[in-house]
Design goal:
449 residues, alpha/beta, FAD/NAD(P)-binding domain
């Protein structure tokens, strides 16, 4: 049973420093609302992002404001919470303090680290410029910019020259994010843009989904994986499993499949193949796994640091011999558990152990289709429209803020009944990386035919 490395001060309220405004951090701070503690929530951004719907921002179903909420607004009625917009750059576990990018030094009695994860390119960080991933609102708007710009540039080139380079969209990684991105790109090309262009046919765009494993959604049961692949095929998505990416360039993706080298031409390449934990875990000096996650016990503490809690993607917690996945549901439960543990400490009672309660997983595959593994309140494998309706209900319920729920539901109703998408805006740079090379390659192909 863990005990604090030092007794809590009796002449002041304990200070809890929560780093990270994601699902784990928010739930940790909320779980402390009725305890005699002072909470500082620190994040380098001023908003919480509902990450499960980021792909809908990336593919123009929703706007960023629909899935993001200012952290200060979330805690405006919780008087024991203060919010700081800053970034931790050093942790002094012996002195119970952190240093921030602004130069401040913040002390704590309890430290909660919930800074999530970032993209992993498996040692090829140079691929990031060619194949952006999807973790933040900025990532989502960049993906939206690239996808929509590809169609606009193709339309202009067709009007000027009578042909356009192939509109191939390559998504690397067939986990939930990759499957959702591939399905949404196919939807937007075949359904929502079909009457918007005069010179090109968006429906002729190709969407290719590459993965090194033997099936899509490998973490899901085999029957749901097969149904997901069938749904992708109906959308026209070309699924390439057993395909290991070996190189990414401005207009192409190279891979190895069945021992052979293959090359895919790409107008836009997107990355959904791997993640690594936030680098903040390395500052603790605690044991890490190969992805940089901090190894924690059943009170979510690293070895010999009972006043430090690690949550969500940053935590490597094993239950029944398996690592609990770094997704929203476990992160929220970990945050709630932190509140129970601190309450136990304040009452001088034994700390409760964390145990993840798996309610299931779900992923969408285009318009009104999804797969869902339901574990609670009943056990079931669902697919198609019933799974999609379940997905819709769950995500509306967990969105933070009444306005967000109403605006997202209204956007979905408008989108799915009118076949229009109101957030199809191109902002920022009006050039597409590699487009000039893509045009030259297309010219060579045109001349050879």
């Amino acid at each position: 049973m863990n005990t604090l490395a030092k007794p809590l001060s009796l002449d002041r309220r304990p200070r809890v420093l929560v780093v990270g405004g994601g699902f784990g951090g928010l739930h940790a701070a909320k779980s402390l609302a009725h305890l005699p503690v002072d909470v500082t929530l620190l994040d380098r951004r001023n908003h919480h992002t509902f990450q499960p719907l980021l792909y809908q921002v990336a593919l123009a179903v929703l706007s960023p404001a629909d899935i993001a909420q200012p952290i200060r607004t979330i805690f405006r009625n919780q008087k024991n919470v203060e919010v700081l917009m800053d970034e931790v750059v050093a942790i002094d576990t012996a002195g119970h303090a952190v240093e921030t990018a602004s130069g401040a030094r913040l002390g704590y009695d309890y430290l909660v680290l919930a800074t999530g994860a970032t993209h992993s390119y498996f040692g090829h960080d140079d691929w990031a410029a060619q194949a952006p991933g999807l973790k933040t609102v900025e990532d989502a708007t960049e993906i939206r910019r690239r996808v929509l710009l590809a169609f606009e540039l193709a339309e202009r080139h067709m009007q000027e020259h009578g042909w356009h380079p192939p509109l191939n969209f390559v998504v690397i990684g067939a986990g939930p994010t990759g499957v959702e991105l591939a399905g949404a790109i196919s939807d937007i090309a075949q359904l929502y843009m079909r009457h918007d262009f005069r010179h090109i046919d968006p429906a002729k765009a190709r969407v290719l989904l590459l993965d090194g494993g033997d099936r899509v959604l490998a973490a899901y049961p085999a029957d749901l994986s097969a149904k997901a692949e069938d749904a992708l095929a109906k959308l026209g998505v070309e699924v390439h499993t057993h395909t290991h990416v070996t190189g990414i360039g401005p207009t192409w993706v190279e891979a190895s499949a069945a021992g052979l080298a293959v090359r895919f031409e790409a107008a836009v390449t997107l990355w959904a193949a791997g993640i690594q934990a936030s680098p903040l875990g390395k500052l603790l000096g605690a044991p890490l796994d190969r992805r940089g996650c901090v190894l924690v016990d059943d009170q979510l503490n690293p070895p010999a640091l009972p006043e430090v809690f690690i949550l969500g993607d940053l935590a490597h917690f094993e239950q029944d011999g398996l690592q609990v996945p770094g997704v929203a549901q476990p992160a929220m439960q970990m945050g709630d558990c932190v509140g129970r543990i601190i309450a136990a400490d304040l009452a001088d009672e034994p700390r409760p152990a964390f145990r993840h309660f798996d309610k299931g997983d779900m992923a969408t595959i285009g318009r009104m289709a999804a797969v869902a593994k339901v574990e609670w309140p009943f056990k079931a494998h669902m697919s198609g429209l019933p799974a999609w309706l379940t997905w819709l209900t769950v995500h509306i319920f967990f969105l933070i803020g009444f306005r967000s729920r109403v605006s997202v539901f209204a956007a979905w109703v408008w989108t799915y009944f009118t076949f229009t998408r109101g957030a199809r805006l191109i902002t920022g740079d009006q050039t597409l990386p590699g487009w000039d090379q893509h045009v030259k390659a297309g010219e060579e192909q045109e001349r050879s035919q």
